[in-house]
Predict the 3D structure of the following.
Amino acid sequence: MSDIKKVVLAYSGGLDTSVIVKWLQETYNCEVVTFTADIGQGEEVEPARAKAEALGVKEIYIDDMREEYVRDYVFPMFRANAIYEGEYLLGTSIARPLIAKRMIDIANETGADAISHGATGKGNDQVRFELGAYALKPGVQVIAPWREWDLNSRDKLLEYCETHNIPVEMKRGKKSPFSMDANLLHISYEGGNLEDPWSEAEDDMWRWSVAPEDAPDQATYMELTYVKGDITEIDGVAKTPAEVLTELNEIGGANGIGRLDIVENRYVGMKSRGCYETPGGTIMMRAHRAIESITLDREVAHLKDELMPRYASLVYNGYWWSPERKMLQTAIDESQQCVNGVVRLKLYKGNVIVVGRKSDDSLFDEAIATFDDDEGAYNQKDAEGFIKLNALRMRIASNKGRKLD
């Protein structure tokens, strides 16, 4: 422990990370640098400064990273249409590589030789933070207090605070029943009654969205403009990436969109039940697939769909900085060069309904697709040879007496 002189801690200012500051100072006899990221969690981050100062921290970083987060992480991931295990839009997963990168940047700026985080030894976040850190700074040391200390309960953490005069707002008996994590893409809920997969989530748990049955009876229409696979305008008004997601969250939440209740497979091997609110991301996913439907070549679109589960697993498991994710991203970004145009949506009581799409780069040819007279644009007799050629191997097998059923 004596070779660690300075540690960069991912610091929220809450109970766990406040304890970690003091624990690092005492256990490692080192200087602690705190880093607090504003990635749209919806809470003030500046109060973390005063809390860190009260704990004797001299170097305090508080960064507004909302634009970088959406531009460089969320948008690239949505170009891939990434969904983990068919449902999860990866809201927590995609935030971790950004935080890991900034922690390493700060370590380099301050001369720190270690980083630390408050992720537990049961979850995915420890893997995501540390894989990112090692990829960006191979020699960095990582301190994960939850894997070292015996402060394994809220009561023990509060007792530690009392012993060490650490101010905390939340007292005994005020504990939220859920473990929550929020950023501009989503808010997640775990723990409490959700640990029973048969138990329905309580109505007052949800924070960003109304229940679909309580959403307005009048549908909301909107138009999203895409340039190279990214949304640049809402209803004709130019928006920055963070502004896009912020507005879609508000509109989607008001229409009961984006609630999800799933049991997922964590990378560490256990199943975990969680609930998520991702109103803006749900809209983005539906709209992106709509604009791709008229601008992507068939085989490119199908290849993207084949690659997507691997891409999603890489993000979920913490391999954002891996060479294979970068390779896939290059291919995905190349596919988006002609994904330009406008998608019109109808939002109604939890549903995202595509009602129109148009693009100057559209591959949809009305003259060929029409059920009316196509005036020779497509020779329907050509289909006969096409079908016979594709049936040839099955006809041969059948003639040889092989059973095909």
Remarks:
- The longest strand covers residues 31-38.
- The chain has three domains: 6-77+86-163, 179-296+338-358, 366-399.
- The chain has a mean pLDDT of 94.
